[in-house]
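Title: Comparing notes on inverse folding

I've been comparing how different people in this forum approach sequence design from structure. To keep things fair, I'm posting one structure and asking everyone to reply with a full sequence. Here's the target:
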């Protein structure tokens, strides 16, 4: 990879796989929609250099669901890194998601970029929180990487997203995260999942992006739980050596009919 060539990164999030391949989430079979996303990823030319899985990879938190995920992602041959969401079981993930091309590392470099992956999950709760240990680790890692452009990822967005029912489950201590990031101008991007929709905010030169789920989509700016009719998707990012980023959301042509009358899950 030349210094002028951008790094191509795919973000995939909120897969909600079950051990039972036929099981549905609100009327949608999460395995089938994820397979549609993987097929579109596999057809990309050029192929992504890196795949980031940003939480809620399982819905039932079973070893079998993570084993299924591993078996589906491995044929892509793309180096893949992950972090947990509120529906995940971290100890099980740490046992299963460790064999190449899936790696457990939370601090690594590819090309001219550094990547730092955070655990914002709180066991037993839907909202996110970054522990003092996680924030200290982030600060330390950012000191280590120096001026290399850096992407930080976590499951829960650190902003309100103009959706009353979702805003109670975002990151609960965003100011503590911002205090760390403000000390390190090499951070260019923060990627999140959790809200099952495309959302962007900029703060002090840092772009904060969320990405659609590979399964059900939440309707933006809704006061109560509400599903959207748009297709599943993922995000592609071109990361340039000088810290610039170009990004777009890719939607998958996947016919589905979730339970729009649902009031939650």
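Reply #1:
Here's my take.
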């Amino acid at each position: 990879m030349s210094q002028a060539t951008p790094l191509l990164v795919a973000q995939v999030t909120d897969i909600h796989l079950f051990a039972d391949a036929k099981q549905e989430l609100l009327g949608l079979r999460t395995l089938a929609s994820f397979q549609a996303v993987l097929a579109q990823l596999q057809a990309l030319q050029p192929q992504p250099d890196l795949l980031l899985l940003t939480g809620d990879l399982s819905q039932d938190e079973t070893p079998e669901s993570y084993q299924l995920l591993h078996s589906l992602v491995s044929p892509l041959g793309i180096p893949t890194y992950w972090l947990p969401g509120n529906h995940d079981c971290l100890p099980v993930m740490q046992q299963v998601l460790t064999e190449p091309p899936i790696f457990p590392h939370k601090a690594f470099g590819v090309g001219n970029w550094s990547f730092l992956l955070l655990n914002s999950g709180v066991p037993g709760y839907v909202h996110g929180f970054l522990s003092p240990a996680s924030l200290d680790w982030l600060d330390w890692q950012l000191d280590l990487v120096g001026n290399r452009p850096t992407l930080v990822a976590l499951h829960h967005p650190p902003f309100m997203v103009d959706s009353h029912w979702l805003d109670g489950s975002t990151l609960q201590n965003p100011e503590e995260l911002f205090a760390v990031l403000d000390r390190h101008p090499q951070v260019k991007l923060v990627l999140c999942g959790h809200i099952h929709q495309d959302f962007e905010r900029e703060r002090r030169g840092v772009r904060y992006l969320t990405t659609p789920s590979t399964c059900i989509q939440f309707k933006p700016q809704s006061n109560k739980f509400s599903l959207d009719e748009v297709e599943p998707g993922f995000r592609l990012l071109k990361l340039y050596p000088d810290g610039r980023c170009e990004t777009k959301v890719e939607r998958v042509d996947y016919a589905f009919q979730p339970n729009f009358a649902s009031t939650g899950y």
